Every structure is written in structure tokens, then in C-alpha cells.
Amino acid sequence: MKVLISTSLRPTPRIRTFCKDLASTSSIFQYITRGKMNLPTLFSQALTLNANKIWLINSRHGNPGIIFFHVYEKSEFKNIGSIIIKGVSLKRELKNIAPKSKKNQYILI
Q1: Could you say which of 8, 15, 43, 105 would form a disulfide bridge with 58 (CB–CB 3.0 to 4.6 Å)?
Q2: Could you give the angle at the alpha carbon of 83 between the alpha carbons of 79 and 20, nearest 5°?
Q3: Is residue 33 part of a domain?
Q4: CATH number of the domain to which 58 belongs
């Protein structure tokens, strides 16, 4: 079971980075650059990569705003829902904000 993560047709750099950050969180996620692919082409690409689920990230005011969930059932992809997201922080932004704790550092031997 793989989940394919892709963007809307004209994503902002922030949305592309969000998709890459999301794909790096687990081995079941795979990010694909959509380019000019329409939805049927994207769905066939997902089947080629053995992904039975697709998450499409769309923008709201230039930021990641809506995630649409599609699942492959009975020989077709169906939209099973969507969520609205607000206040997204990217990995590169968190590195500058979060203080480094020296309490739980590990020593490699």
C-alpha cells in the first residue's frame, strides 16, 4: 500500500516543499511532480507505481490549504474526502524556531 502525494496544476514553491516534507515522514508516501498531468493521467501513473491512494494538495492564498483524498476502488479512483489545513510550518522554518535541547542527546558509539 502506497500513498501518492501530488500538487495542484500550478503549485507555489511552498506547496512543493510541503509535499516533499510530508512524503519524507513515512516510507508509504511517495511524492510525484505533477507537471501538466490531468487527473486521469495522474491516476494511471499511481497505478503504475502501485499506489492505491492519492493525496492532492491544493493552495489557498499561496499556502497549502486543502488536501483531497482519492482511493482506488472497483477499477476507479474515487474522491473520499478533503480537509482544510491552516497554519502550515515547513521543516526548514522549524529549524530556525525550535531551540535545541541538550537534555536527550544520544551518543553514537
Answers
A1: 8
A2: 90
A3: yes
A4: 3.40.50.10480
Q: Quick check: is 101 in a domain?
A: no
In terms of residue numbers, what domain contains 43?
Answer: 3-93
Please provide residue 93's backbone torsions phi and psi, each rounded to the nearest 5 degrees: -80, -30
Instruction: For residue 81, give Cα distances in angstroms to 16, 41, 75, 101.
Output: 21, 20, 18, 39
DSSP string of 63-80?
EEEEEEEEEEETTEEEEE
Q: pLDDT tens digits, residue range 30-87?
A: 999 998 999 999 999 999 999 999 999 999 888 899 999 999 998 889 999 999 998 8
Is residue 71, in this structure, part of any structural domain at all?
Answer: yes
What's the pTM? 0.79
Residue 27 corresponds to which amino acid? S
Terminal Cα distance for the chain, rounded:
36
